[in-house]
Every structure is written in structure tokens, then in C-alpha cells.
Specification:
The chain is mainly alpha-helical. Among the domains are: 59-82 and 117-229, no CATH class; 239-318, no CATH class. Helices cover 51% and strands 0% of the residues. The radius of gyration is 33 Å and the shape is elongated.
Length: 318
């Protein structure tokens, strides 16, 4: 009996198979290797270059480290001579503030967070349980005319400036009214740890508003001294997420750079001027594809060809 054998069929590749070269690739292995390398680099670089995570400065820290500065700052708040007292909007109407081309942008913004500098001292003392002498000092202050209050506080501020190291215990005798009692009482409240909570709780209905406590702290010299020691002063090119000598926000360098060069470094309106310049630069970046000349820079400086060099090597220009 004859046997019929079916003809062998030869497999032909489909039109879309083997069009490109292939090679074995272990995705899991590559992922594990990349993860291990990045973890090692993160650990090593963090140990070498990371900035220290220092604790926030509190009113208690300030009072214990520089009590004379607390007393001088409290006196300045009562006299209305501190930075926040004379800043203008959004805290008060003491000045027109920053301008650009004569336009008072800060004044136009308006007083949205009204803060009376005297209340930074009087309000915490009024809310706290204080000795009778402090209550009498508060009553004497409130019963006096604004001119008398200013005279008392200014005289005491001048006396503190002349005292050795600004020590309140070595101030010469004079007519200072209740100002010494009020200033020293605020110092005692700060040392007890109650001042921070009193200022924070009074900002809004729910509490937790740090505006008033930050204003009081920044009106003193202690906070700025700590910033300068960490190279964060305005003339030290400082811009960091945390304290230390290494940058935490390097993308902010373009903003802080302008404060180091004239005319911004010597201008009283530097904040507004730098802001306006950055808005112009940002607008220029957004409109870059539509600006003749600037939009041709990538063609004149072909960095993209370096990044996509494999593609351009296999696809030479005609």
C-alpha cells in the first residue's frame, strides 16, 4: 500500500517581523541594578553634601541667647521704629513701599494683614497672667497720649543703645514711663515659652498664624545674625531650603543673582525691580518661539545634535 507524504511547508516571516534587530533584555535585572546604584549614590552624596536640619528659632531661644536684643526690639515696637512698624503694606500705611518706574505697587496691594507693632508687645502681656506692676504699666501706657508714648519709648531706646552691651540693668536713669516694665515683662514671657503661642494664636480664628511672631523675631538683630552666620545674608548669595553651606534651591539662583549687581544692589526698590525683571524674563521665555532671532538659537547652537547623536549618525543630513 502506498504512503502519501504531505509536502513540508517552509515558514516565511510575516511582513512586520524581523524588520528590526532584537536582543535579550532582562528588565528586572536592569531595574535592580539601577535602584542599587541610585541608593548608593544618594547615601554617599547626602553624607558629603547635605545641609544640616537645624531646629527652628523660637522666642524662647531668642530670649535665652540674646535677652538684650529682645528688650531693644520690644522697645522699638512701642516706639514704632522697627522694620515691620515702618514697612507699609500689607501690614500698615506707614510708607508707600516698593515702586517700579514710580508705580507704587506695594501701596496698590493695600493693607491686607493689618499689624500694629505696639500690639506685638501689648497683646501678649494683656492676655497673660501678669503681676500687678505689669497691669499698672499697661494701664499707664494706654492712658497716655500717642506723643507721650513715643517720647517714653524713644528715650528708653536711646538709653539702651548707650548702655554697655545694651544691658537693661545698666541703663541710665530717665523718664521712660512704663516702657522698661513692659519690655522686661515681654522678655520674661518669651523665656517662659508663652510668647510664641500667644502671638500665633491671635492671628486668626483657628490660630497657627505665624505672621506676627515672625515679624517680631525679624525686627530684632538675632535672626539676621544667625542667617549671616549660615551665609544666608542678602549680600551672601544665600538661598536654601535648610541652613548650611550647600544650596537647597539652586533653581533660585537667577532670582537672587540680581540682588548682587547694580543697580539692584544699591536700590531701595530692589524687591519690586527684581520681581519686574523676572516677570519680563519669564514672559520672554514663554514667547521664545515667536521672537525672531531668539527662536533661531537652537539652530545656531545645535546642542540637540549632541544629545541625539546616535540618530544623526544614522540619518545624515542631505
Amino acid at each position: 500500500m502506498a504512503t502519501v507524504t504531505a509536502p513540508r511547508r517552509t515558514a516565511h516571516p510575516t511582513p512586520d517581523s524581523h524588520d528590526f534587530p532584537t536582543r535579550h533584555y532582562d528588565l528586572v535585572k536592569e531595574f535592580v541594578i539601577a535602584l542599587a546604584v541610585m541608593a548608593l549614590l544618594t547615601t554617599v552624596l547626602a553624607a558629603i553634601f547635605s545641609s544640616p536640619d537645624e531646629k527652628a528659632i523660637t522666642m524662647k531661644d531668642w530670649a535665652e541667647a540674646d535677652p538684650a536684643d529682645v528688650v531693644a526690639t520690644a522697645t522699638g515696637e512701642l516706639a514704632g521704629t522697627t522694620t515691620s512698624a515702618t514697612y507699609g503694606a500689607p501690614y500698615n500705611h506707614a510708607s508707600d513701599g516698593q515702586k517700579v518706574l514710580g508705580i507704587p505697587l506695594q501701596k496698590w496691594g493695600g493693607v491686607r494683614i493689618p499689624v500694629n507693632s505696639q500690639d506685638l508687645v501689648l497683646q501678649p502681656l494683656s492676655d497673660a497672667v501678669v503681676a500687678p506692676v505689669v497691669s499698672q504699666a499697661l494701664a499707664q501706657w494706654r492712658s497716655a497720649s500717642p506723643s507721650q508714648q513715643t517720647a517714653w519709648a524713644t528715650a528708653y531706646a536711646d538709653a539702651l543703645a548707650k548702655a554697655p552691651n545694651g544691658d537693661p540693668t545698666q541703663v541710665a536713669k530717665g523718664d521712660y514711663g512704663p516702657v522698661p516694665v513692659l519690655s522686661l515683662s515681654l522678655l520674661a514671657l518669651a523665656k517662659s515659652g508663652s510668647l510664641e503661642g500667644s502671638l500665633t494664636a491671635s492671628g486668626n480664628f483657628y490660630g497657627g498664624d505665624q505672621t506676627r511672631s515672625v515679624l517680631l523675631l525679624s525686627d530684632g538683630a538675632y535672626l539676621e545674625d544667625q542667617a549671616v552666620a549660615q551665609h544666608l545674608g542678602g549680600d551672601q548669595w544665600g538661598m536654601m531650603n535648610e541652613t548650611g553651606n550647600y544650596p537647597g534651591q539652586p533653581w533660585m539662583w537667577l532670582y537672587t543673582f540680581w540682588y548682587q549687581v547694580k543697580p539692584f544692589s544699591t536700590s531701595p526698590n530692589a524687591d519690586a525691580q527684581v520681581w519686574a525683571l523676572m516677570m519680563v524674563l519669564t514672559l520672554g521665555l514663554l514667547l521664545l518661539p515667536f521672537i525672531p532671532g531668539l527662536r533661531s538659537i537652537p539652530r545656531w547652537v545645535p546642542v540637540h545634535r549632541l544629545i541625539w547623536r546616535d540618530y544623526y549618525r544614522t540619518h545624515p543630513r542631505e
